[in-house]
Amino acid sequence: MLCPLLSYVSGLHAAMDVDDDDARPTKRPRAAAAPPAWSRSWSDLPVEIAGEILGRVPSFADRARFSSACRQWRLAAAELHGGALPPPLPWLVSCYKGAFDSLPYGDRHYLALDSPACLACDGGWLLFDRRAAAAVAGGGGGGGYLLKKPISKAAMELPGSLSGPPAATAEMKICKLVVMSRDLVAAIVSTSGGGGGRAVALCRPGTSPSWSAHHPPGGADHQLGDLRDIAVHGGKLYALHGHGNLCSYDLIAGDGEPKVSSCVHHIAGDALPPNKLPEEHDAGHHLVPSATGGELLLVRHLYSRFLGRHFTVFVADVGGARWSEAAASSLRDQLIFVGTGCSRALTASHYGGVGAMRGNRVFYTNDVEAYSSTHSYLVYDMIMRSNGPVFPIYDDDYLHEGRRRYRYEDTRYRSWFFPSSV
Predict the structure, then answer these.
(1) DSSP single-letter state for residue 28
(2) Alpha carbons within 13 A on the beta-carbon side of 297
(3) Main-chain phi, psi angles of 76, to 5 degrees
(4) I need a surface site. Which of 9, 58, 62, 218 has the fewest CB within 10 A?
(5) Three-state SS for 418?
(6) Which backbone phi and psi does 137 adopt, to 5 degrees?
(7) Residue 324 · residue 246 · CB < 8 Å
(8) Following CA atoms 65, 69, 75, 79 in sequence, which dihedral angle do they give, to the nearest 10 degrees?
(9) CB-based burial of residue 93 (10 Å sphere; 0-12 exposed, 13-18 middle, 19+ buried)?
(10) 389, 329, 382: which is closest to 355 by C-alpha?
């Protein structure tokens, strides 16, 4: 037993370089070792890996936090935001106290807004009415509209009246807005004068003194039915009238005021299939370009007292002048968001099935029951044919306070907001 112990002690002395005179151990100086390759700073994260990370982060707020970590990550994110990343998932805008609920987990964000009441929304733009503020300040009904991105603070001035005689343009209201470019905005407007009704209107932000309204040629408004929705597809502006009448507008947007050069009626008559049940009634029709951009979709929202809400998606067959019901296989990679303001389709596979983000689903705003329901918006599964919540709204007092302070017409507006930092 002694020999192994002596051998161990002698090895220990040799390792510590023991001086026999004072028996005090002294450590030998060692050369500084080079740091291993894996100990580099997180700030040196390659752009390719940063793209892989951001591509798996569907939340706009989480992407913003990634960019704020350090300068290198911010530069990497800026380089990737040019189009290599899928768009972030939308927020739901209610505008009361600047509250926005975000997908996929329902985080609430607050943004400083110019007004508590949002009139319309398109992508990352919000529309506010300056005419009411001008009237309160004693400036009459002027002031026009303000179109603003609440995150980047980009803003555009829009006119507050229609061109034409005052009797025909009284009390103009913007019902739907489409920002085609920084130089061209289209909208569905309604007026109380001149017989009322809705029309497609165009303006050039910042320069147009008024909106120019355009009706289908030959007085075809009554034949086509009420104007329901507009959308941009393939560089053209499409309009949906009545029960499936589809028209396209060719626009001239040179140096002068934007104009309509021609209006083509592609799908005529009662082109949509009738409702399957007699107690069903239409709750809404939405034009939505597909996630790939190759097709124009029509999402029909039906309501039945016995079956509740359900949706059917149709594809525009312009050559055959008809609507074809979309097969489930063609929608398996699409997330379709519809609402009174902005409607858009996203590619489901970009978000990895996080939460409720799976294909063949329609996300819709709970406009009618926004302040009597426990959910601010819902999702319809087109395979299971069932409705369900995306997430519950927060149990705070902002809904009840909103009831006290604002008219129901203001508080009920809900729309999808697609945040952007540019």
Answers:
(1) P
(2) 28
(3) -65, -40
(4) 218
(5) coil
(6) -80, 0
(7) no
(8) -30
(9) buried
(10) 389
Q: Is the pTM of the predicted complex or chain greater than 0.85?
A: no
CA distances from 392 to 155, 283, 286, 339, 414 (A): 32, 23, 25, 18, 15
Reading the block at residue 220, the tokens are 């075809």
Q: What is the DSSP letter of 133?
A: H
pLDDT in tens, the chain (422 residues): 434 433 433 443 343 343 444 444 445 555 555 555 555 677 777 877 887 788 788 889 998 888 888 888 888 787 776 667 888 999 988 766 778 888 888 888 888 887 766 788 898 999 988 765 555 455 544 568 899 998 888 999 999 888 866 545 567 889 899 999 889 999 999 876 555 578 899 999 988 888 988 877 655 556 677 899 999 998 899 999 988 899 999 888 777 788 888 888 899 767 788 776 667 777 789 999 999 989 999 999 988 877 788 899 999 998 889 999 999 899 999 999 998 888 999 999 988 776 678 899 999 986 544 333 344 578 899 988 888 877 654 444 444 433 333 333 334 467 899 998 76
d(CA 208, CA 416): 28
Residue 306's φ and ψ, nearest 5 degrees, are -95, -35
Rg (CA), the chain: 30
Nearest to 228 by CA among 183, 273, 184, 282: 282
- Give the span between the Cα atoms of 7 and 265, in whole angstroms: 100
Measured CA to CA, the distance from residue 133 to residue 143 in angstroms comes to 8
